[in-house]
């Protein structure tokens, strides 16, 4: 299915319904293809998806750095 820019602006809801049904929708400008409407990708990040795969950091990770470690990092 093709639609001019003007038709796309006027009938956007109908074009989105067509895309949802699996139709290919090309938007043209002066008869030349300019864009294609495609279904949006579903979110790829799920909260908690790494549960059981990643360990918590060791307790020492949260301890303050010693004076020597601060010097090594250039912070003291």
Could you explain the architecture of this structure?
By secondary structure, the chain is of the alpha+beta class. It has helices at about 5-10, 10-20, 65-70, and strands at about 1-5, 25-30, 30-35. A three-stranded mixed beta sheet has the order 1-2-3. A hairpin with a 2-residue loop joins strand 2 and strand 3 (about 30-35). The mean pLDDT is about 90.
> What fraction of the residues are assigned to beta strands by DSSP?
15-25%
Decide which structural class fits the backbone.
alpha+beta
Helix content: 25-40%
Unreliable stretches, pLDDT < 50, 5 or more residues? none
- Gross CATH architecture of the domain at 2-37: 3-Layer(aba) Sandwich
Terminal residue distance: 66 Å
Tell me the number of helical segments per DSSP (H or I, 4 or more residues long): 3
CATH homologous superfamily designation of the domain at 2-37: YefM-like domain
Average of per-residue pLDDT values: 90
Please tell me how large the radius of gyration is: 27 Å
Q: Using the coordinates shown, work out and report the CATH topology of the domain at 2-37.
A: YefM-like fold
Q: State the shape.
A: elongated
- Quantity of strands, as a count: 3
Q: How is the main sheet built? A: 3 strands, mixed
Strand order of the biggest β-sheet: 1-2-3
